[in-house]
Write a structure and sequence with these properties.
The protein is an all-beta fold. It has a single domain, classed as UDP N-Acetylglucosamine Acyltransferase, domain 1. The protein contains no helices and 20 strands. The strands form three sheets. The chain has an eight-stranded mixed sheet, with no helix packed on it. The chain has a seven-stranded mixed sheet with strand order 4-7-10-13-16-19-20, with no helix packed on it.
Length: 135
């Protein structure tokens, strides 16, 4: 049986240790808190200070930067990028290859379409069809 962690050197020459999440084998940095009932698929990266609630799913290739909050039942699709300090509400859905800017807030039940970019600090609320509403 192989080891349950991976060491990766960052741009500053510091080594960060990532453990493989029990549900999906995605890489979770030391200092991140991922609920055991969340799913982090292999190939996803969760950085330090991230909090992911129960029932959330982070797909292959997604990158969650430091200090992000992901609510219960939220879905982060493949190759999405969530910027530092962003908050993704409960049951929100972030589409494939979407980019959420730093400190942005995506409200509960919102849908962000595939390939969409949300600006730094934006406050987004959508209806269930993905139409943007006043936040």
């Amino acid at each position: 049986m192989g080891k349950n962690y991976v060491d990766i050197e960052d741009d500053n020459g510091e080594t960060l240790r990532y453990r493989k999440h029990i549900n999906g084998r995605g890489l979770v940095a030391h200092g991140a808190k991922v609920h055991p009932e969340a799913r982090v698929e292999s190939g996803a990266y969760i950085e330090p200070g991230v909090r992911i609630d129960a029932g959330a799913k982070v797909a292959k290739g997604a990158w969650i930067e430091p200090n992000v909050q992901i609510g219960m039942g939220a879905v982060i699709d493949a190759n999405a990028h969530i910027g530092p300090g962003a908050a993704i509400g409960a049951r929100a859905h972030i589409g494939i290859r979407s980019m959420i800017g730093a400190e942005a807030l995506v409200a509960d039940d919102s849908i962000i379409a595939d390939d969409e970019k949300i600006a730094t600090g934006a406050r987004i609320r959508t209806d269930r069809r993905g139409f943007h509403l006043a936040a």
